[in-house]
Structures are given as structure tokens and as C-alpha cells.
């Protein structure tokens, strides 16, 4: 046993070369990933890029066609039943019994998982998720945010070590989304590893690790800062002056990869820093605008990665 190579923090996920095919379609294409225990990990990418399939393979719900690795210290290929017992999975269309109360829904789930004593598991889960005062409310009368909180309660009641959430906040208002993310961070602090797919940049920015998926491949992995740095992009902001004209000139200018209006500002992004600076300063002068360098945002980095998308294996446009 090589003690010296033991990582500082235990790895919840350590997989290599994962491939998953559906017929001729390669949904996951050679994914390798390491995730430390207790991290919140985002999967981003266009619809159909393989986020859900990747997460399903990683939590033992789908068997990969190739690849190997360990999840929660167990063998991804041999220990799938044991891995599944340790995961909580919230699908895109989580289902609740609308005609049952919050408490009755959780009692039902406790029965499915054969949790004993069920009453105690339900009581603890209601308290942990801030649902106790609403426990007698019918699920069908809950707002989107509370329904989603109940769905989260249902998938953490059996105390999983790995939580898999497939676009959990789609259609939920900003306040409820923020509260939901506070819950995820509390779970993370308790040592639970969270895999979450999302299309929201602000949610990605709340994660310890971001994975950008395109056509089944991991295009980039890292922290927010690492992902932005890997894009190699430089950003300038223009304000004041004749913005319509500035935008038109910038779109036609060399060394400008992206131009995006934000309120009264234009964000201009490119890869060649000195060349971009020259172009932006000239156009700012010509349009009576002020120009200054700015911080590259995650969204700009992703738009850059989308544009570069990996070669398509499935014969569809990138
Ligand atoms: N059970 C299945 N049988 C056949 N093809 C599938 C199956 N599940 C997924 N696919 C295909 O695999 C590819 C990846 O799908 P997946 O659902 O993983 O993408 P996604 O990034 O999660 O998409 P979305 O953002 O729309 O949820 C798609 O082309 C999809 O049609």
C-alpha cells in the first residue's frame, strides 16, 4: 500500500475514460474526473451534451461501456448496488404526491427506503430542511420553491453521501434558488458531495468545481477562476458615447471575439490582449466612449468554449 500517494482529502469520485453509448450515439466520451468529498460540482453545457448521462454513470445508475474508477471508495463497475444505496437523486421532473401533505410525502419515502424508525427520520428531515412548520400543508398547494425543497428533503432523508441533482432549480424564483443553494452548501459542509447540472452561471459560480460538457466530452474542469483563466480571454468595458455605433464597429473589428451589451455598457472580449486593447481604445475614441479593462466573466468563458466545441461524433452541428 502506497501511503505517500494518499490524497489530503478523500476523493468521492475518481474515474477514468468513462464512455457511455446509446446505440450509435456516444453520450459520454472518455470522461475522467476527480472530485473531493464534500465538494459541490457543476455540470454545464448545451442541451443534449451529456450532463445527465455523465452524472447517472458517476452515481452507478447507468453502466458505462468503457472506463473504470471508484465512487465513494467503491468500484464503479462491481459495486453499483452499494453505490446506489449511498446516493440521493433528484431528477429534472421530481414527482411528489400532490394530494399528500409534506409530512405524508416524507413518510411515504421513508417507507420506500425502509428507514427505521420512520417517524424519527421524517422529524429530523423536516427540521433540517426548515419544513416543520409546514408539515401539514398539501404538497399540491406549495409554491415552486417549497416543492423543490420537499423534493430535496425526499432525496436526503436516507442520508446519502453523494447527491445528484439534475437542473434542480429550473423555473424557481431567485429568492428560492438562493435558499436552495444555502441548503446545498450546508450539505456540503456536512461532507456530502453534490453533483448538479445547471444552465445558470450564478449557480456555477457557487460551486467548488465546474465541468463544461460538450458532445459528451469534458471540455474544461476547474474552479471558476481556473476555467476563466483557461479560456485565455481578455475583457474590456466601454461606456458613455455613441454605444450603437461603437457596437457596430466592434462587431466588424479584428481581434474582437464577443461583444455583449450590459445595460449602458458594452463588454468586449478577445484573446489577443494587446491587439484588443488597441482596437477598443481606437473605437472608444471614434465614438466618444470611455474604455477600461475589466474582469472576464464566467459566461464569456463559456460562450468561448461553446464556440470552440469539440468535433462532433454524432454528425450533428456543434
Ligand atoms: N436512454 C437513452 N437512450 C437513448 N439516447 C439517450 C438516452 N439518454 C440520453 N440519450 C442521448 O444522449 C445524449 C446526451 O443526453 P443527456 O440527457 O445526457 O444530455 P444533457 O446534457 O443532460 O441534456 P439536457 O440539458 O437537455 O438535460 C443526447 O443525445 C440524448 O438524446
Automatic annotation (TrEMBL):
Keyword ATP-binding: yes
Protein name in the entry: ABC-2 type transport system ATP-binding protein
InterPro entries: AAA+_ATPase, ABC_transporter-like_ATP-bd, ABC_transporter-like_CS, P-loop_NTPase
SUPFAM superfamilies for the chain: P-loop containing nucleoside triphosphate hydrolases
UniProt KW keywords: ATP-binding, Nucleotide-binding
Organism in which the protein naturally occurs: Albidovulum inexpectatum
Domain ABC transporter: 13-240
CDD domains listed in its UniProt record: ABC_DR_subfamily_A
UniProt-recorded Gene Ontology molecular function terms: ATP binding; ATP hydrolysis activity
Amino acid at each position: 500500500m502506497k501511503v505517500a500517494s494518499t490524497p489530503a482529502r478523500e476523493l468521492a469520485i475518481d474515474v477514468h475514460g468513462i464512455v457511455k453509448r446509446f446505440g450509435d450515439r456516444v453520450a459520454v466520451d472518455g470522461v475522467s474526473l476527480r472530485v473531493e468529498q464534500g465538494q459541490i460540482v457543476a455540470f454545464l453545457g448545451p442541451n443534449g451534451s451529456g450532463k445527465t448521462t455523465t452524472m447517472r454513470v458517476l452515481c452507478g445508475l447507468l453502466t458505462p461501456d468503457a472506463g473504470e474508477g471508484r465512487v465513494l471508495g467503491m468500484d464503479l463497475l462491481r459495486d453499483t448496488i452499494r453505490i446506489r444505496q449511498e446516493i440521493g437523486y433528484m431528477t429534472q421532473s421530481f414527482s411528489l404526491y400532490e394530494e399528500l401533505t409534506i409530512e405524508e410525502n416524507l413518510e411515504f419515502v421513508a417507507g420506500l427506503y425502509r428507514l427505521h424508525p420512520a417517524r424519527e427520520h421524517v422529524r429530523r428531515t423536516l427540521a433540517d430542511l426548515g419544513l416543520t412548520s409546514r408539515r401539514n400543508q398539501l404538497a399540491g398547494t406549495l409554491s415552486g420553491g417549497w416543492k423543490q425543497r420537499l423534493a430535496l428533503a425526499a432525496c436526503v432523508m436516507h442520508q446519502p453521501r453523494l447527491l445528484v441533482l439534475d437542473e434542480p432549480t429550473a423555473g424557481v424564483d431567485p429568492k428560492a434558488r438562493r435558499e436552495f443553494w444555502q441548503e446545498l452548501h450546508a450539505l456540503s459542509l456536512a461532507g456530502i458531495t453534490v453533483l448538479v447540472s445547471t444552465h445558470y452561471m450564478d449557480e456555477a459560480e457557487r460551486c467548488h468545481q465546474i465541468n463544461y460538457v460538450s458532445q459528451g466530452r469534458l471540455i474544461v474542469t476547474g474552479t471558476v477562476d481556473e476555467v476563466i483563466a483557461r479560456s485565455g480571454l481578455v475583457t474590456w468595458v466601454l461606456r458613455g458615447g455613441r454605444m450603437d455605433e461603437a457596437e457596430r464597429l466592434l462587431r466588424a473589428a479584428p481581434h474582437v471575439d464577443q461583444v455583449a451589451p450590459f445595460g449602458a455598457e458594452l463588454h468586449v472580449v478577445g484573446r489577443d490582449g494587446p491587439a484588443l486593447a488597441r482596437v477598443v481604445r481606437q473605437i472608444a475614441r471614434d465614438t466618444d466612449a470611455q474604455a477600461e479593462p475589466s474582469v472576464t466573466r464566467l459566461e464569456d468563458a463559456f460562450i468561448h468554449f461553446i464556440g470552440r466545441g469539440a468535433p462532433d461524433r454524432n454528425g450533428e452541428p456543434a
